[in-house]
Design brief:
With 187 residues, this protein is an all-alpha fold. It contains four helices and no strands.
């Protein structure tokens, strides 16, 4: 008998480290490459403006040049700090986002292992925000189909064993039906 249960919230976000970190790292590297390009462009722009000010004598003396160099260093520091914050944020977002994908796949694999052990007891549940909900619904329909076929085949085998005692010809017909059902499943 199948009982309805509310899916539990998963607190362990790293379920499949290889998959999750690979895709989180991919996201981070793409964002970091973009951020690095922007950082280098901004620093180049600052350098061009400093050179233009010096060339046009808008600033003069060592004090002004030193001040502009310090400002450039502060801008670089802010940009690289933002760069680091983006890295950490995207890594966390990547793990969270891939959790929504790897969680249902992990649950499905675990459920399949139970089926292989002969425990076709209850449907697989995933959280409402997880990906692959449609796949899980079709998977659950397949499990119901397998359970019904297993029950039908068990009933046929029981009937065959009883018929073999009373009517061997009837048992042969039932065995042929069972073989046809098995061929249908194997196809």
């Amino acid at each position: 008998m199948s009982r309805e249960r509310e899916p539990r919230m998963r607190w362990r976000y790293v379920i499949n480290p290889q998959f999750q970190f690979k895709w989180a790292l991919f996201m981070v590297l793409a964002a970091l490459a973009s951020s690095a390009i922007v950082t280098l462009l901004v620093l180049n722009l600052v350098d061009e403006h400093i050179a233009a000010f010096v060339h046009q004598n808008l600033i003069g003396g060592e004090e002004a040049a030193s001040f502009l160099k310090m400002e450039r260093l502060r801008i670089a520091e802010v940009l690289w700090t933002a760069f680091g914050a983006i890295f950490i944020s995207l890594m966390l977002i990547g793990v969270w986002a891939t959790h929504r994908i790897s969680g249902p796949l992990f649950a499905m694999r675990r459920h399949m292992e139970r089926i292989v052990q002969g425990r076709i007891d209850e449907p697989l549940h995933v959280r409402s925000g997880d990906e692959f909900r449609q796949l899980v619904e079709v998977y659950n329909e397949m499990v119901v189909f397998l359970r019904m076929n297993a029950q039908r085949n068990a009933e046929k085998l029981s009937t065959i064993s009883k018929e073999m005692e009373h009517d061997p010809d009837e048992a042969k017909e039932l065995l042929d039906e069972l073989a046809a059902a098995h061929r249908h499943l194997a196809a």
